Every structure is written in structure tokens, then in C-alpha cells.
Please model this.
Amino acid sequence: QVQLVESGGGLVQPGGSLRPSCASSGFTFSSYRMTWVRQAPGKGLEWVSDINSSGTSTSYTDSVKGRFTISRDNAKNTLYLQMKSLKPEDTAVYYCAKGIQRSDGSYSARGQGTQVTVSS
Model:
């Protein structure tokens, strides 16, 4: 079955960096667009970034443009999110998701998430 396992979150000071990753299995990773979404405390799920199957096209929500970089290694079936210049408002649980968002807001598969906390 499809499995997505995030890791690499943590506690970091404002201005710091983190690089969460998402290891996938159970499907042909290289055939799918992949997405990072996040959920801050008390808020709904927010789309952060996505990348096409080959890694040649990326998109970002405005609040992270210039600070976050999404990438993938299809040989390792792994998705990454390089996060720099982190701000307290980036604090959230970060999830990787398979494919694009459905009309009901869900994804065909989503990991368990990794906590990112930005605080001094």
C-alpha cells in the first residue's frame, strides 16, 4: 500500500533552516506530482508547494517564495523541502501528499507529518 513517511522537522530559532524529507513506497513515485502541505495550530490545511513528476516545475504559496525550495530524488523515491529564513508563522505540522488536491480538499495519500516549530 501507499506509504509516505516524513522526517526532519524540529525546533529552530527564527532565521534558521530545516530540510524535511518524505520517503515514499507502494507506488511509482516518479510518475506523480508531489505536494507539501502544512497545518498550523488551530488552522486548516494549507498548500505550501508542489513539484511535477520530473522535478522540472515547482510552485509555492506566496508566503514561502524565496525561502523554501521543493525538490525530489526519483531514484530514492524521496521528496524534500529546504526551508530557510524560517519565521514563527511557519510553525506547523508539515505533510507530504501524493498528487494534487481533490475537489473535497483531500489527497489520495498523505503522510503522518513532521512538526516544525520556529521559536526563540
The CA atoms of residues 30 and 75 lie 8 Å apart. The mean pLDDT is 97. The chain has no helices and eleven strands.
